Amino acid sequence: MKIDLEELRNAPKTKSGFATLIGRPNVGKSTLMNHLIGQKIAITSNKPQTTRNRIQTVYTCDRGQIVFLDTPGIHKAKNKLGEYMVNVAERTLNEVDVILWLVEPTTFIGAGERHIAEQLKQTRTPVILIINKVDTVKKEEIIKFMDAYRKLYEFAEIIPASALRAQNLDTIIEAIFKYLPYGPMFYDEDTVTDQPQRQIVAEMIREKALRCLDEEVPHGIAVAIDTMKERNGGQIFDIDATIICERDSHKGIIIGKSGAMLKKIGSSARRDIENMLEAKVNLQLWVKVKKDWRDSDFMIKNFGYDKKEI
Question: How sure is the predictor about 232, in pLDDT bands with cuts at 50, 70 and 90?
Fold first, then answer.
């Protein structure tokens, strides 16, 4: 067989491919992705069902490019929005080059993890298990957690890490590149996300609401950007946004006494938005009640979710 030297010289030197982050809700997927990318793209909170869209972010270095898909957590759906979220997460498994499965540091493997393992057995995609939050346990216990999961599934790699403390992130990146094909980059090297600005702004506002509000309210909220206009050549942004909730009682909680809660959500969201846009932001928030919007195909699509995936 004759070797074509010209073809060898022209062969791609970089690797490019897709990696998805999966796991039960609230296991740290968005935190990990934000730290790997080095910017805040996916919203985080200590409440489940934080991520509702499949957020696409891009990591570029000399070795090549990793396109991350941060999916909603896989869980038992309770309404149409829940079904949409699970469908998005499970469909992604066969569309990527490598899967990152994040789990808690424990030897107890519950029904949720076993359900994910069964889903993974239906794909040929290599799976890297990331035991997250190892900063919360003793070092000598980590090997027990690795052994427990090793019995559940045949992983390509098992990596203990802490997304919050940015521990072992280089090892994760190194492992991902191992399973990516050689090829040209999908995005320009300065691209960080494919999410529209308005969508990221809406998610930032929703994150602050999730952080500030009581347990029963956040699951039933969405954020719609009504207007987003630039002034002074992009030095100032005027943004009007509406927080949608399901009940009149929730509306009162979101607004708070004399508007205090809404003001708190708005001021903390504005700081993040200003950092992202690198501009001053004039943010006006409103609250509307749309009952049972999570069971309405029209409403779900209206708030930025893809009807085809519901």
Answer: confident
